[in-house]
Amino acid sequence: MFQSFDNVIDPSVGSARCAALRRELARRGLDGFLIPRADAHQGEYVPPSDARLSWLTGFAGSAGMAVVLADEAAIFVDGRYTIQVREQVDTAVFRPMHLIETPPSEWLAGKLQPGQKLGYDPMLHTVNGAKRLAEACARAGAELVAVDGNPLDAVWEDRPEPPLGQVRVHGQEFAGEAAEDKIARMAADVRRAGGDAFVLTQPDSIAWLFNIRGSDVSHTPLPLSFAVLPREGRPQIFIDGRKLTNASRDHLEALADIAEPDGLTGALSALGSSGATVLVDPDWAGDALASAVLAAGGKVKHGADPVTKAKAVKNPAEIAGARAAHLRDGAAFARFLCWLDGAAAAGGLDEIAVAERLEVFRAETGKLKEISFDSISAAGPNAAICHYRVDRGSNLPIPDNSLFLIDSGAQYEDGTTDITRTVAVGEVPQDQKRHFTLVLKGHIAIATARFPVGTSGAQIDALARIALWKAGLDFDHGTGHGVGSYLSVHEGPQRIAKTGHAPLEPGMIVSNEPGYYRDGSHGIRIENLELVTPPAAIEGGERAMLGFEPLTLAPIDRRAVVAEMLSAEERAWFDAYHARVLRELGPLVDETTRAWLEAATAPL
């Protein structure tokens, strides 16, 4: 199994570990220290050797930061984790704070005293992040101090070794473009931006650029590495040579100069010494990297990672791969839903059993490389924790007459999937059906949206919420995130969210996943992945409009729908989507699943 259900979170360790860190800080003459969730690549996915925030506090979410001062400590999380953080962290040691409502910089400005020194690891904070923190310290009369050697690492006695996942070549039949051509395109962007070189810090950007995949973190085929892309000439890739097979080394040597990761700072210093202008993305690059260039006499220019947008707009081969992956995954998911209906009615199921069985169905495709994240298999009140992760301690039986939420995904060599369905088990209470239908209305509003070129996700996010808002309800996460091509299940720059300001472009893939969560009772989310389609004329209109094509193919549980709450247009979409699900999945499943699918996709 790709997913483990062992409970590795222990809030009781927070007190002793925080005390050990404070002793180390005092030894170094520091009055406090910052512990972010991120590693040196600033991404969402970190290996166990870099899971510092989790080790110190017990918090296992994908975003957050802790601040440890001499007599006070706090942990900052966003709205996704306000319930989870209180269950995983000793709140007598770390006070939970809302990351958006009270950012760490504001909290620090009110807590630090004049003359105090707050330490930070400059590889673990971005250029912009470090700037905000330095400004907060200055407002308090304190100083932000870059440490040489992370003090938390000094007290982490059982720290795991860094990963050595094998690097593989990602075939051009899946990539759709030769790495040489990608490098030439991105080098041209470096020239247009007025730089001599760009520092690539995100492993998914490097994987896409060089047509490689790795296995350094769970569920996402990332080769942890850095790269320097010059405006002319050969790039440099900084990666542990022990990860390379003969094939992947030959592939990379044809494209770039290979060096060990500890050579990155020296390479940046050499660029600085030559007077080069080095481009860095201030929202992703570690502050230490920009400092290395500046300290050697070079110039740093801020600019967006050129690979991020290029990677987000899928080429024809990647789009074909995404459709094939979703068709395969949809058939496996239909078999799973058919099984779940029967098994849930018989009783005795729990959250872990469901997650394990779903993985088996995907594995039986013969194409599964990994799951794309730990499945959120959530019954009753656990579904109200929108990023819930089941373990052997939290595992609940699936009760009759309730809603059950399963959010899951798969990694196939031709595409990455992510799907959420909320399933009726028995006769669902009427108020939960009402909430389900309000969420469905938001999902349909996004799925049927037409919008002009240049529209961002922020501009359409409200469509997913209007029905909920009218009922005095909302959800505290974005409506959608970008998805990679056999890469990260969370990919930028595109998002459907209040903060999603990147324009949506044809070829981008984005999730459509409104939800509703009632603490202690139930949670609902309905998620499809959508492909942004090219501008097309609308009869009687004056402008061609972009739209969405659903990639995900799976029934949405009609038993939880209050049909009278849907408009005629919404019912038409629902029935047409189900007709397509049956038409495309029916030939791919067994006779039993086909009969179940016919009933599950019947018109409302």
TrEMBL record:
Keywords: Aminopeptidase, Hydrolase, Metal-binding, Protease. Residues 322-533 form the Peptidase M24 domain. This is Xaa-Pro aminopeptidase. One of its GO terms (molecular function) is metal ion binding. The keyword RNA-binding does not apply. The keyword Transmembrane helix does not apply. Residues 545-604 form the Peptidase M24 C-terminal domain. InterPro entries: Creatin/AminoP/Spt16_N, Creatinase/aminopeptidase-like, Creatinase_N, Pept_M24, Pept_M24B, Peptidase_M24_C, X-Pro_aminopeptidase_P. Belongs to the peptidase M24B family. CDD domains: APP. Pfam families: Creatinase_N, Creatinase_N_2, Peptidase_M24, Peptidase_M24_C. Residues 17-149 form the Creatinase N-terminal domain. SUPFAM superfamilies: Creatinase/aminopeptidase (SSF55920), Creatinase/prolidase N-terminal domain (SSF53092). One of its GO terms (cellular component) is cytoplasm.
